[in-house]
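3.2 Worked example (two chains)
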Amino acid sequence: MMKWILVAAGLAACTDHRDAGTQAASPSASLVGDTATNHQAQAPGLVVGAAQLPRYLPLLRGKRVGLVVNQTSRVGNTYLVDTLKTLHVNLTAIFAPEHGFRGEAADGATIANGRDARTGVPVRSVYGATKKPTPAMLADVDVLVFDIQDVGTRFYTFISTLHYVMEAAAEQGKTVVVLDRPNPNGAVVDGPVLEAKHRSFVGLDPLPICHGLTVGELARMLNGEKWLAGGRQCALTVVPVAAGYTHATPYALPVRPSPNLPTARAVALYPSVCLFEGTNVSVGRGTDRPFEVIGGPAQPATRPYQFTPRPNAGSPTPPLSGQLCYGLDLHQPAPGQPAEFFTVSYLLDFYKNSTDKGHFFGKYFEQLAGTDSLRAQVIADRSEVSIQASWEPQLGQYKTLRKKYLLYPEK
């Protein structure tokens, strides 16, 4: 029978998931415990997976190691690649996702293959034409280490990279080690669940917009639900966050997770505001407050906030560049608004007040929403309560499924 091992606080337990009518998380999944030496954490009171070196270095010794990392992949203030290189881990490849290994590429920019100037390790792009590592890319790799900060949202592409890395590993007999990090929106499970016909790189799996999982928990779900191609499962180890992390634990990201999410407020707004990327409304790319302001030329000039997107380092060609946009400044939370939330109220408001409703929605809206129904509901002027109720059957099923893969308490 297929089993997985939990090692935490010095205790070892062996559980057979088949007894509960479900399948184990992976054919050889182990969950590395949190009893390690207290290395420097990336946030006070928490020890992220990458900082627990004694728990995963033994898995890398004598192996050819590929890293799936970006600018958030650090032990303290040091890049994980530099830390492991110093410890003489045999790094044979760095796999660079969207924004590149150092996180300097703009949104949507093609990531080129190359070599890391500091360590000399080859860098192979998994964003652009090749999103899934090929057999040639993994020929000199035994173990893939995934360590990237997520923000808990289905259309944030790093979890699509995780899916493809695990899929390639399952097909090519490689091991995956996920170094877990907190989800800054971890208390939110909300939004429509992705419909298969809208599957794309901004949504590969049947998750709601706010999935409420860490990347470690999500990796277990991908394996356990056999969502990888062909129903395969990869050999998976998750190094969880230590020191009492829960899904309700506040977590201020020490490094911006991508160029246009520079603040905690932007990260909190991202699940709600990103839907505008499929409309004629700007989310503030090309300003100094991306994802904290929304507006467009087809909104009433009486809106209380105005801005004009212009090219900058994070957005060389921002939508509506040079056009005066009328909208809202969301930098300050509304009275009573929780720190983590998801709402379609902004979307309903901006469609209702649009002076060009015929061009409000773009062709990519359904890929972000994950469903056909949301566009129709907005056009029909349905209330937010009514729209939320329409998600509940699928969302309720997902919430039940999610509980099988949680590594941390809800509170």
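3.2.1 Second chain
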Amino acid sequence: MLIGILLLLISCNKNDTVSTTDLTFIGLSKSTSTYSGKQAAEYFELLCTFSKTTAGFFPPQVARAYGYVGITGYEAVFNGIPNATSLSNPLNGLGADLLPKADKTKAYNWALAYNAATAEIIRKMFLQALSKINAASLDSLVKSYSNRLSVGEDSNVILRSIQFGKDIAGAIYTYSTTDGGDLSYLDPFQLPYTKPTDSAAWVPTSAIQNPVSPKWGNNRPFLIQNVSTTQPSSPIPFSTGVNSEFYSQALLVNNQVKMNSAEQIEITKYWADDPFNTFTPTGHTFGILSQILQENRASLEKSVIGFAKLSIAENDAFICCWKGKYQYNLIRPVSYIKKYINPAFTTVIGTPPFPAYTSGHSCEMGAGSKIFISLFANENGDYTFTDYSQLKYGLSVRNYTNFNSMADECAKSRLYGGLHYPMDNDKGLQVGRAIGNNVNTIIILPSNIH
């Protein structure tokens, strides 16, 4: 057996084509699956806090930050996952030559690599806005895991693993700076921007007079197909005629708000996910994923795969959705209803500062639901769980038996709140689910994971 292993190592040195399965099982490194996924969950929990407490991190900026953190974590450890490959090929603009390579003749501690990579990319995603308190929290977490994971480990393995993780993070950050959203939290309104002034166009609905990130739809997606093949059809033609289809959409919103049940109001507030008050829509979706992974005692292997898939889907969902929003610049229901139907109309919660069509919540949760199904459920989406993620914001828990119905509820919450026309939600779900399907089919990742 020893002779066989030596021959294999010699062969690796000659042709550098050893597979990840070989790396894991020839005894050089422990596989990624031997480490707990709790580490990843704690970093994404910290990311939620950073997003909530950092100025300029509106929903698009948050989704982007999660996106790069997710793919960085995966790239730092995929060499320890049997049959896994780098994301450098499917991801738009991320060539294999841009990423450092692990030395296939030496051992790594993949959890240490993840620790270093994730901490480093989080720092870079909040580069010019990371508060002292948040920086201290990040330093504390990375030090805690570094100390625990280094116990009994060879000093060379420790240094090699940490450096590899930092190198991966540096390369991914360099890649991120060319996507169109670099440092966007410093200028989330992307001024100067001239707002359309026709009757169908968005008008401010709060003290914020400029819409958020009007050029976000021009950003580079992780998957080209998530923008090129998923754009919705045009919204129902604008009209103020009382017999028009558009008027009917607005009237339905007005009547829904008047007839809301206590549970529908609860649902509205549950899915509000307002930036700076909560962890935003993306943060809520990641919170659900993190909770389910922990309930299943997922390894670092399954966690990084799950977070990577959701990261790609969420980032691209906001790019795609924002592209449509500013293509059509559609007036919000509250503005239309007050002018043409009911001057006394009020929404259940505040209307966010950007156009209506399509719904961002519907799009991102539509995408997220497809990732959840790929990880935990059958094609019907059946999965029973309780979402505890909103307890920290003073809300109660909600119970679900199906990921598709959960996404439907999230979308309907925007109708119950008076924030979106039905078509915004329906088309948003359609776009999001198409994006999630793209991620599941184009990104080929190991599925037999625990």
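3.3 Remarks
Residues 1-19 have pLDDT under 50 and may be disordered.
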